[in-house]
Design goal:
Elements: E1 10-14, H1 24-29, E2 33-37, H2 40-49, E3 54-59, H3 72-79, E4 86-91, H4 96-105, E5 110-113, H5 118-136
Parallel strand pairs: 1-2, 1-3, 3-4, 4-5
Helix pairs in contact: 2-3
Protein name: Response regulatory domain-containing protein
Length: about 140
């Protein structure tokens, strides 16, 4: 896979809670330069340095947040300035309704219910790359 600039595409993985397989080898096998962070705060700082082609993140519903409902809202708000970035999120099945409400406001490319399989993630990444390639051409 090649990114829009003819370089390897960049993938930012934000692993806050985990509970799914380590997918780093898959990301690298698919040709991504990978950066892995463990918090949205660190992801915000990383996005100031360089905007990735794909972000893989968890959707963690938080009913106690004052001004938002999840960890993903701040990330998605920042990415509105970069509509070419494809976001793939993992979510707990019991939070699907809340995630769908978020998706009405922000363009999440793919949402995969936990537990995720490597095959599901690979399919989503290949689709994201194909979608980015059609936009580039």
């Amino acid at each position: 896979m090649m990114g829009a600039s003819g370089q390897r595409p960049r993938l930012l993985a934000i692993i806050e809670l985990g509970g799914y397989p380590n997918l780093t080898a898959l990301y690298q096998r698919l040709g991504f330069d990978v950066e892995i962070l463990n918090s949205q705060r660190k992801a915000q700082a990383a996005l100031k340095r360089q905007v990735p082609d794909v972000v893989v993140a968890e959707y963690n519903f938080q009913s106690d947040f004052r001004d938002r409902t999840s960890n993903l809202e701040t990330l998605m708000a920042r990415l509105q300035r970069h509509p070419h970035v494809k976001v793939i999120c993992f979510y707990q099945p019991e939070h699907q309704l809340k995630l769908e409400q978020l998706r009405q406001r922000f363009p999440v490319f793919a949402a995969l219910s936990l537990p995720v399989s490597e095959e599901q993630v690979e399919q989503s990444l290949r689709a994201a790359h194909a979608a980015a390639s059609t936009v580039d051409n």
